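Z., the sequence and structure:
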Amino acid sequence: MSAPENHEAGDHRSAASVRSLEVVTAAVLFALGAVVIADSLRIGAGWNMDGPQSGYFPFYIGIFLCLSSLINFWHAIRDPETAAESFLTRHQASMVMSLLIPTTVFVIVIGFIGIYVASALLIGWFMVRLGKFSFPRTAPVAIGIPAVLFALFELWFKMPLPKGPLEQLLGVV
């Protein structure tokens, strides 16, 4: 059961096949397993007089990770259906990006403008851009939520969060 969608026909084209993502996932997990194995060997993956060394358990986890990645890779390249099967359409990819890009920008700008101003901008962006709310309805929410969070963390919990130049200008640093 799927919801009716009204977007252009070109949006139904595949942005990624199941096979391509399974191959990439297998490769990334294999590399992660190899790093775990290498580091376990570096710190010691055997037995001492008093029992297993620090890297003993992680070493075997790395081996299992590499073996399972090889099995997944083998199945991905041998199954002809995964090459044609769409994992993600272009429309779905654009929906993911409409959330991922602003959230990534939010995380980056926290260091420059502080978490409260960045939160107000992110909430405002999502309400106007994705929620289609008007500015008069957006402004109180976009300003109110960071204000409540400021009171909660800074005043009640006494837990300072990253602040920027606006907070310094207002003297709340």
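The mean pLDDT is 91. Helices lie at 18-43, 56-78, 80-84, 90-113, 115-130, 135-156, 165-170.

Let me know what you think.
H.
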